Structure prediction request, 350 residues.
Amino acid sequence: MKNRYRYFRLLWIVLLYALVILYTLIFPTTASWFILYAFTLWLLLSFLSTRQSYHLTRTDKLKKEDNTFSFNFFIENKRRQPFLLSSIEIILVFNDILRSSSTAVFFSRKIESQFHSITLPRGHHETLTLNIVGTGWFGVWKKRSQLVVPINIDVYPDVLRKFERDRLMYYLASYLTETSRSLHHDYYMTDIRDFQNRDALSGIDWKTSLKRGQWMVKEYEAEEETPVNLYVFGFDTESFETLLSIAYSLLMELKKTKDVTLFLLGEFYGKPTVVKEGSGFLTIQPAHNKTDLLHLWEKTRNTPSKKIIIKSSQVTVPVSAHPSQSAKIIDEEILPMIKGGESDSEQENG
Prediction:
């Protein structure tokens, strides 16, 4: 529609110019020649005002707390002269994203164009495109050009808000802190020593203290902390990106206090694969075959660790009942609890 309007306007100007020339030739008066010269000068100045080239001098990018981006683009005339254009429209193009910004630039030396709250899809992005439409004097002629802007941005899954992360960690707290044995069994006692100010009163061994006539406490063998394996099953469901966001947020939280190993199970570059690096969050895609995911699970699960499995409820994962092979499952059912409501299981228990 815009192209049709532009061609119609250009055709109208050409016809009008032709009529002015025809009128001047038929009625060669001083006034008619003045109109012809003025019209010609008007068209010439309008055309010359668009014969400028410009380039991008700086790009500022900022990631906000809501995981959106803001971009500031600075454009200058290549000849370091003021712009003679009446206005410039800058259109940011990225996949399905289309944003435009217009500004008056006549006699300006630098253009700053701002785009806020741009949501980029998950992955690594090297460039985006700016389509620039410069309007010359009187709006007759336009100059169109395109700039490819390097941005080099990694977009990871969205991070849950703080209160959502707190709810998630509270949900996992009992599983992450439980031990496979009771440290207060005499079998794990290593020494009996004098009571010190830093010791708790609950740790006093009253029987030994009465025999020796002074406060005594028992020391026990500390159980080595079990590592945590975080498994993420990438299956093709509507909740894939949501579960991926939970997994990424949980990984960031666990790394603060735990020895955690990541296992991303999904498709990478079209092939079912297990990736253990956090950078895999950029490129993982959902698998369409559950069997492929279960085969990957069988290859990686036989390690003594606490296992946290993030998966779709449509995928059934066989988990051993042995303590060293047990697992905590996170799926769509706990989403209401994380977001502020109660999960289905909690409602049933209530």
About this structure: The chain has nine helices and 14 strands.
